[in-house]
Design goal:
two-stranded parallel sheet, single chain
């Protein structure tokens, strides 16, 4: 590893430049861009510059244009306080040709190949659509959130608008809106290995609902025949301190509330999606 000199570093091959914040990365990049224009006679659309964000591409375009303008100024005799530009001036053998290259580069800066990583990839896919098998009308999404929210809203309408009241009551206990459901599931969308359990085939759902309602009917019958006895056993166990009445779930008030909740629950015609809080 050695210190980088933007004026002498070679312009071909692969070079890895390591730099921390505030060390002049953009300044160095702009000078390398200038050297490619002057030394290699490359037009601005032949030099690929890739950065991370859209805002950075606009800033970089401005800095590159400024660097070209400064080089043109110093070649035209104007004073510019920059050691690297002075070195460029001293190394140029044909001043008129250099001015032509700089003027052309400045005129065509709007054509400069300055992209974010993703926008460059999108452009390559569009330009080579046949080779890549990509669609001509692809749209680039800066964020998937709006698309995912639209999908979740469609799912919400299809799943819950015509669902039984018990099911919608169950769903809204956890998620008041489609956005709530999206936020709850958001961390799992990029995990292809996620498997929903239990795995139930579409045809099994109706049978599972039928089985549930049969079990619910049995529970109703058992409670009608033995509910009073169960309540009495709980009360006696509490009084004899077999179970601790100090615990909230075994207090006299709680046993009464649980009994009343069971009565209400088992008066329903079908099995509910949610149990009362007391149970």
């Amino acid at each position: 590893m050695k210190p980088l000199d933007p004026q002498t570093v070679r312009l071909s091959g692969r070079i890895l430049i390591e730099a921390s914040a505030g060390t002049g990365k953009t300044y160095t990049l702009a000078h390398l861009f200038l050297r490619l224009v002057l030394e290699k006679a490359l037009s601005v659309d032949q030099i690929l510059v890739v950065t991370f964000t859209q805002a950075a591409t606009e800033e970089l375009r401005g800095r590159l244009r400024q660097r070209l303008r400064q080089a043109k100024d110093i070649l035209e005799g104007r004073e510019v306080q920059d050691d690297l530009l002075s070195a460029i001036k001293d190394s140029i053998q044909n001043r008129d040709e250099a001015l032509i290259l700089l003027t052309d580069a400045l005129t065509r800066m709007d054509e400069a190949a300055i992209f974010t990583i993703h926008s460059f990839c999108q452009r390559m896919l569009q330009e080579h659509a046949f080779e890549s098998g990509a669609l001509f009308s692809m749209e680039f999404l800066e964020s998937e959130y709006l698309l995912r929210r639209r999908i979740m809203e469609d799912f919400w309408r299809l799943r819950f608008y015509r669902a039984p009241e018990d099911e919608t009551a169950w769903a809204t206990t956890f998620w008041k809106t489609p956005a709530d459901l999206l936020n709850n599931l958001g961390g799992h969308f990029d995990r292809s290995e996620v498997v929903c359990l239990p795995t139930v085939a579409p045809g099994e759902i109706k049978q599972r609902e039928k089985d549930l309602n049969q079990l619910f009917s049995r529970l109703q019958a058992l409670w009608r025949s033995s509910g009073g006895e169960i309540t009495l056993l709980l009360q006696q166990a509490r009084e004899k301190k077999i179970i601790s009445g100090a615990q909230k779930k075994y207090s006299a008030k709680y046993i009464q509330q649980a009994t009343e909740s069971m009565d209400t629950l088992l008066n329903a015609s079908t099995a509910p999606w949610l149990l009362p809080d007391e149970l």
